[in-house]
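Quick one: structure tokens for this chain, please?
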Amino acid sequence: MNRYNVVKYTAFSLEILLCYIIQSTPGLTLEVFGGRPILMLPIAMTIAIFEGEIPAIIFGVICGLMADSGYSGPMGYYAIMLAIACYVISILMENYIRTNLLTAVLIGVISVPVIITVQFLLFYVAMGYDYAGEYFVAHYISRIVYTFAFVPVFYGVNRYIAAKTINE
């Protein structure tokens, strides 16, 4: 591994750690319409846009485990989902899709609702909780929108990090 990758991966790791602290500290992220963002999702997905398959999977698992530890529910759901999503995103970006803000937004529009809705279906609807639909409307729709709102922000940050550490 060359020094550019060390600098880049260190910057990504510091970004993840800082956002995890912000996400996990009560009162630092505002609750909007009953939902708080899951910052680890857009971070992992935007890192996958700029990285190969293996680093994308590793950062996906790390972000997923941090998201799992920050929210109630079984450990491993977000780690598995982000590992899969980051792998697919990395493959698509390397082989088929151009890297730009529009594609990052489209990835966020698809990935964020799918990952959060599947989590809701598996851990609320499948468990038979009463009024699951009302809970989804009251808490999950705002969480999806709020999380998605950070995709362009983290795309810009991670694009800057990736551009500044290119080995020329």
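The helical segments are 3-24, 40-50, 53-70, 77-95, 101-125, 132-148, 151-164.
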